[in-house]
Design goal:
With 115 residues, this protein is an all-alpha fold. It has one domain. 80% of the residues lie in helices and 0% in strands. It is built from four helices and no strands. The chain is elongated, with a radius of gyration of 21 Å.
């Protein structure tokens, strides 16, 4: 009879797993805050300008137009772009942590089938 697989056997200490769980909680909360902030900024900036910023963000502007557009960016435009960049990074990090948990759970499932 073999013992159940632990996080430690998979190379992950209990405190590491707890760290990942805490990280997920913090990432989810921060993402929610960024969504609220983004809505506030969009209301402040206006729909037409936000559409232009989206084109700029997606790098859809011709090079010459992009250069001119950068000169027109104001404080709130830059804050919204920073929000998008941060949100993108946080979603990427959240996905990576999710994949880590999936691998961990997958390994546990495989190990338990061999018991």
């Amino acid at each position: 009879m073999s013992l159940p697989t632990t996080s430690f056997q998979l190379g992950l200490k209990v405190e590491d797993e707890q760290f990942l769980k805490d990280m997920v909680t913090q990432l989810d909360e921060t993402i929610r805050k960024l969504v609220v902030e983004e809505k506030e900024l969009i209301n402040k900036i206006g729909t037409a300008r936000v559409e232009e910023l989206i084109e700029f963000w997606k790098q859809e502007l011709p090079e010459e137009e992009e250069h001119f557009f950068k000169m027109t960016l104001d404080y709130w435009d830059k804050i919204l772009i920073r929000n998008w960049a941060r949100s993108k990074r946080l979603h990427h990090t959240r996905a990576e942590v999710g994949r880590t948990f999936m691998k961990l759970n997958s390994n546990r499932g495989i190990d338990s089938k061999h018991e």
